[in-house]
Structures are given as structure tokens and as C-alpha cells.
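B., you asked whether I could sanity-check this one before it goes into the benchmark set. Here's the sequence:
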Amino acid sequence: MEFLQLTRDQHQPPSGAEPLGHVIAVRGSQVTLALRTAASNGGGEERVTVGTFVGIRVGDSLLLAMITNVAVQSRTVSDSEGGAVAADLDMLGEIQNHGRSDARFQRGIVNHPAIGDCAIRAGSPELRLAFTIGASNIIDIGHLHQDHAVSAHIDVDHMLNKHFAVLGTTGVGKSSGVAVLLHEILKARPDVRIFLLDAHNEYGRCFGDRAQVINTQNLKLPFWLFSFEELCDVFFGGRKGLEEEIEYLAEVIPIAKNTYAQNRRPTDSPIIRRTDSRNVAFTIDTPVPFRITDLVMLLNERMGKLENRSSRLAYYKLMTRIETVVNDPRHAFMFENANVGGDTMAEVLSRLFRLPTNGVPMTVMQFAGFPSDVLDAVVSVLCRMAFELGLWSDGVSPLLLVCEEAHRYVSADRSLGFDPTRRSIARIAKEGRKYGVFLGLISQRPSEIDPTILSQCSTLFAMRMTNDNDQDLVRTTVPDTATSLLSFLPSLGTREVFAFGEGVAMPSRLRFKEMAPEMLPRSDATGVDPRVVDPEMQHDFMASVVERWRGVRTPADGPDLSYVLGGADLQSSFPIAPTSPHQSAEPEHFGQLRRPSTMRAEDTLRQTLSDRWRK
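And here's what the prediction gave me:
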């Protein structure tokens, strides 16, 4: 008792600072304080509880720590000396030269506290110094939970270059937090383009004229941009294809690509050329145009050479399957007018990924209402092209890919999801930063995300989580010195978040700033405000809902395959499926396609990039 009193006399609090207690135990990065009873029971600003920042004076330095646990201890020290309540602290960093003009904060501890050192409450000046980031490019996303006067700053370059993730259960303000981050990124990094995969059509109105919104009504994504795996997923409706039919497609698709390349030359005859598969210049994954009519003609030609009826049936089923998919009005964004204008790859990429931006640096890709049988393939195409665009352009224009509901596409369960989508996102996570392609993952079920991909995100924003598996997964991704902070996760308020990693000065509890009501994410796909719904619905309301539900649209130009599938040779052998009313876009089935007569300078640049990609 006499030794403890002597030590306390030697470690008095700074002048004017009210002591909270004294150090009674030190265990590595953890410290235990004996709190003064008045401090632990006080009210207002003097109240000390979990989450309170505490400073411990050691020489010229002030050690900064956070209280993570408060409990009544056995009374080995008299109440008058403040030993009835003990507080456990996590050491966060050290303010060197405290109280001087050259004071600075550094993470980690150089001078550890000793038994009897005095602890004080850390004030706004200390917290502002600790949470100020010295980087030249920072964004303000809100304020510190413990002190609203201290802004929450993020090093945007570190956050982007090493990827980030926003995790939290539904209803905690996750979408509005993402909107805050993206707004600030657009301000701080005007060179970065953003491509947002919007699973629930929430972000369409959040960014005003800074973003274009793409959905099934205005998307143009020609089928020939799909890789072989992605195209098979479309043709087989998201199910595993028959091995025999997949082999047939693998043989004829490169030939169909070569046929298109030959027939588009001005000197070529508009009649289809017979091409030997051994002389084909393209692979099954080369993103060059080809026609569905050519593909079916090649299959039909091969079927005609067979005498075995069962072998012919396999070809016929494949052709019928292709016709059904192509003529489905929900797939019009892939097949309708896919070859009009010739090779439009550069134009498609330019529109999707905003290159050049023309004052609109962001694309919101809305997926609510997309046909489920092709959704995985479409996401795979977009993610793959985002990476390859950065690869073949040498990363000259950075791109941030933000993936909402990430657990859908990169599931920890390998039996779920679409493998090409997982590989595309994993490639961005592992290699994207080398080519200026960055990744942002958003999920309400982090435990269902592939941990290999999540571990590549070096800045983590963790919002309220109540599921033990989700908390355990997050715990494995944060530094050891911050794991105790995760005990607060189940009790975080709306818009509150714990931030860890490269983008923040140190692990901290923040609160996202509020946004104007018109800028808040709001789903376009699920209902409206019940206060503005007319109780007397119009009589044609349900009819319009049913029409939208069915995806009915006026048939436009699409490939007419009936002349292939309806030939006399086939009619005598197999029943013919009903054909679509779509009319062919091609004057003759293999006529010369229209191409732009002139090209602007930016068109030439895009075409050069497209050609380099394919080599």
C-alpha cells in the first residue's frame, strides 16, 4: 500500500486535468486502471464507460487508449484511493511531445506505462491529432462517435488502391454509408470512374447527373462479348450443359467468328464461306462479332451429314435451345440488333465504363428485374471486361468496381454461384491494383463471402452485426490490437461503423454523415411510400404490372432462325417449336452489315484499344 501511494505521488496528472484513475496492471498492449469512484459514477461529460478514450502520461508522451471493459473489482485498495472499479484498456498509439507545438501521433507504443501512472480523459485536441491523416488526399465521411467535433477522415488513395469492404446486417444504414463514400470519392478523385453493381436498384437517384443508370431497358451487351463459359450459361439457362452439345458449340463458334470476319470485307461475296476449323484465326473466347444465323447454319450443316437419327437429335435439340433463348424478349439486350453497326465493342465499352467520362464518371448497373437465368453470366461479363480493360489499357484510367450483395457472386461455398464470376472478381481483388482496377465489396452476410477475396480488402467498414459467424469472420480480418473493439458490433447504432485498416489513422468508431433525403438510396424495384399511394388504383394498373412482369416488349430486329429449323429435311424427322415473330435484321441472311462511314478521333482510340485486347 505504501509503495503504491509513493508511485502515485511520482506520476501526477497534467496541470488542470482531472485524473480518472491509475494504472494497476500492464499486459502487453492492454492496461488495467483503477478508476476513481466519482469518475465511474459521474454524469454528463465526466461519465467514464466502454468506448471512452483515455490518455496516460509517460514522460513527454501521452499514450492513447480506449476502455473496452468496466467491472467492480475486489477491494484491495481503499475506496478513497479509487480502487473499487477497474477498467480494461486497449493501447492504440502515442502522442509524442504532448502539449508542444511539434506534437505528433504515431500508431503503436514506444514507452509503456508503469504501475501508478495517472490516466486522464482524452480531449478533442488529442483526438483530433490522433485521427488526423497526414495524407494529401483525404475524404470526410462523418465524425467520431466519442466526439462529434472530430471529423472522420479516410485516406482515399490507400482505401482504393488496396480495396475496401462495407459489411453489416440489413437496416443499419449500409447503403447510405456506401453513398457517402462514393460521393466523397467522386469529389476527391475525379480521375476515378465508378461502376456500381446495384442488386436492388437503390442507387439510381443518389448521384444526380454524375451517374448514368443502365438497366434491361437501355442495356446493349452483344452476346459475342461473352466468353464461351458465359455463353454456355446463357444457352443452358444457368444449368450445367450437356457435354455433347457443349462440344458441338466449341467446334462451331470459332468458325462462325471467322465467317463473320471474312464476310464483312468489302471485297467478299455475301455468300457464306466454308471454313475449315483447322484454319480458324479466333479462339472460342476471342471477343469478336459473329452471327447466330451463321452458328445455327454450321450446326445444321453438320447435322445433315449424319445418318444416325440419335446423333442428329442432339444437334437439333441444341439448335432449338439456341432459338428459344435468342427469341426470348427478356434477352433482347444481348441478341436484338447485336450485329447492327458491325464491330461495336469499343462503343459498348466506352458507354459502360465511361471512357471518356464526358462529365458523367459513374455507371449504376441495375439488376432488379434482370432475368435470373442470365444474371450470373452478365455479372461475369461486366467484371471480366472491367479487369481486362484496365489490363489492355495499362491502367491509364482508374476504375472502381463496387459490388453490392457480394456474397451472391463470390460465395464461400464453392458449390454456389457461377465460377467465372468468382474468378473475375477474385482476379480484380488479387491483381486489379496493378492495372488501376479497384474493388469495393458490400454485403450483409460477410461469413458467406469467399475469405480469400475478402482478405484482399485492406480497409474494412464494419457496421452492426448480430450473427456470430459474421462477427467471427470480421474478427479474423482485423489487427489483433483492435479485436476487442468488435465486441461493440451487436450494439452499434444506425449509420455507426467501426473502421479498420490502411485507410484510417487507427481503428475507430465513426458515424457516417447525414445526406439530403433526395440523395439517399431508395429501391426503385420494391414499392413506394404508402402515404402517397392512391387508394383508388386505376383500372389498368394491374394490367401494366403484369405486362412488366412478363417482360413483354414490342418485337424489334432479331435473327430469324425459322428458315434453318423449319426446313423440309427436319420437318420430316422432328417436331418444330413455334417460332418468334421477330424479323431478321439482315437484308439477306448473310448480307454485308452496315458500318460507320467515318470515325472520330476518340472512336479511333477506342478501336485501337479494342484491337489490342484481341491480339
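One thing to flag: The first strand starts at residue 19 and ends at 27. Otherwise nothing jumped out at me.
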